[in-house]
Amino acid sequence: MDVNIEDSWKDVLKDEFEKPYFAELAEKVKQAYSTGDVWPKGSHIFNAFDKCPFDKLKVVILGQDPFPTPGHAHGLCFSVQDHVKPYPKSLINIFKEIESDLGTPIPDNGNLERWAEQGVFLLNTVLTVNAHQPNSHKDFGWETFTNAVISAINNNLEGVVFMLWGSQAQKKIELIDTNKHHILKTVHPSPLSAYRGFFGSKHFSKANELLISQSIQPINW
Pick the catalytic residue: 15, 37, 50, 65? Predict the structure, then answer.
């Protein structure tokens, strides 16, 4: 697996890429791509890193694994490629909450690269998936890698806003020093849980308030 990754991340993660588990993970991923329909495309696996340089990172949003519908995932959690309509239900709920919280209308495409370019790191804890099979790569070793990524953010940056939606994302709190960083947590935006607290959580305005309080440019959600 050739890791095409933005230079500031290479410096932070270079030791991780040399560990034995990463070589095993890379082999499993290569095998999956060579034998099946796997998403995102190989060139997009590390898209979240490429679009949000480490030294520009302000906010972390954690997802689980990529959307398994072919053509949807492109390496940023909750984001879909420009042409995808209708939006996945979790993304619709995210846009509904932004509209309620900030008055921003639902956009005409679901590509969240515009957030990443402002410093929102959209990380799935597992970076690849078989088409139509959610969680199919959860035992590949991705979580060892993405836990190391979260730890690197925790150790090397300060004042990052972590938006943790749902129980899986909230397990990562143990990797985060809450004296150095900010945690916003609520239920997952999935239709199964959004009505139990995601709607009305105002995480988008709260994240901006935390950034402004540190004299950091807020996000145009």
Answer: 65
Q: How many CB atoms are closer than 10 A to CB 25?
A: 21
Active-site residue flag, 139 = no
- Average pLDDT over the chain reads 96
Q: What is the DSSP string of 52-114?
A: S-GGG--EEEEESS---STTT--SSTT---TT--SPPHHHHHHHHHHHHHH-PPPPS---THH
pTM reported for the whole predicted model: 0.97
Tens digits of residue pLDDT in 17-27: 999 999 999 99
- The three-state secondary structure class of 165 is strand
Report the C-alpha gap between 162 and 181 in whole angstroms. Answer: 8
Beta bridge partners of 61: 122, 163
pLDDT at 1 over 70: no
